[in-house]
Amino acid sequence: MDPQSTTATLHERSGADMVLSVIVPARNEADCITKCLESLARQSDDGFDFVLGKDWELIVVDDGSSDSTRALAEQIPGVQVLAAPAPAAGWTGKANACWTGAKSARGAWLLFTDADTVHEDGDLRRALHEAERTGAKLLSYSPRQIVAGFWQHALMPLIFSDLARAYPPLMVSNPQSAIAAANGQFLMVERGPYQRAGGHAAVAKSLLEDVAIARNVKRIAPIRFRYAPDAVSTHMYRSFGAMVEGWTKNLALLFPSPLLLALYRFLDFVLLLGLPVLASRLYSTPQKLLVLLWWVWRLGLYLARVGKSNFPMRDCVLSIVALPVYSALLVRSWMLHRITKRVAWKGRTYGA
User: Fold this and answer.
1) What is the CA radius of gyration of the chain?
2) For residue range 297-316, what is the model confidence (pLDDT) as tens digits?
3) Which pLDDT does position 109 carry in this prediction?
4) DSSP secondary structure string, 282-342?
5) DSSP secondary-structure letter at 173?
6) Distance between CA atoms of 45 and 190, rounded to whole angstroms?
């Protein structure tokens, strides 16, 4: 079945007004929202019968932006712009914005996607086809990550390689496995299972609402998760400070033992930099060779692991320098979540 016939079939079956509702929660995203919405609006220009306003809708939920986010969104033809009410007690801003969009959506499928994403032409139809072909009721993509600056190139491979180990896509997609994950940058879910799982109202206070949604849906229906550079890309953070704030919010929630992981990654740093130094101080040639062979073995294991991040090899090599920073972020995230119990994100402070 090709993507075009899949779209028609889903439309006929659903009983909903439209096949798909694309919901973009946005808070102070003036620097990226135009590019995101233009890439989405182009989905109607791919030569197939998949028309914005007839087969699918594009909803931006303005989450109390203080910049020109709303005005920029309103300039894109076919975009509906909603204003999210102020989050009630116990709600995060993003969950509140997503829930606002979901309640007004008319599609049989709901796609939640972030304002910092850029979508490849035809990716919406292909995603619907993939969900139909695989039987998944929730389909989530991990986008190609666009990075800029030294620290993003060095740090992001470390985090994404550990995410790949903690949430292997094959295990996430396996109904027999309890492991569940999703990436809120592209999370498409069928309306029925989403509603039966309680939607975003059921994860209102979660700072990791995408993973929480996936866990809830996987209890009642199949889910699918994969790396998808063919569909979507994202530039998550525009500055070092934003990157620190974002990962501080998430790391202690993503990994079950963040302090132990911090210790392991700092040990990686000590060995990868310390073994060559140790070899240079040894007088015995056999000892030097033994230490250097140990270093080559450790380096090979390290690069094989970090290579699973889907970043270029030069970034994986550069990541060695960022190991102490990564360890510090893991400790900082644990402290904010477990000790101070206060986490800041996008101008709001939440109880962790």
Assistant:
1) 22
2) 999 999 999 999 999 999 99
3) 98
4) ---HHHHHHHHHHHHHHHHHHHHHHGGG-S-HHHHHHHHHHHHHHHHHHHHHHHIIIII-E
5) T
6) 24
CA angle 147, 212, 101 (to 5 degrees): 80
Cβ-count burial 140-152 (b if 16+ within 10 Å, e if not): bbbbbbebeeebb
Q: Which residue has the tokens 């101008």?
A: 347
Over residues 55-68, the pLDDT tens digits come to 999 999 999 999 99
335 — pLDDT class (breaks 50, 70, 90): very high
Question: Amino acid letter at 341?
Answer: K
Please give the average per-residue pLDDT across 117-139, as a whole number: 96
The whole-number average pLDDT for the span 150-179 is 97
Distance CA 93, CA 318 (A): 35
Three-state DSSP state, 347? coil
Residue ranges of the chain that CATH labels 3.90.550.10: 3-143+183-238
pLDDT at residue 17, as a whole number: 85
Q: Are 81 and 25 in contact (CB under 8 A)?
A: no
- 137 vs 127, 239, 265, 337, CA distance in Å? 11, 35, 36, 32
CATH class (in words) of the domain with range 3-143+183-238 = alpha beta
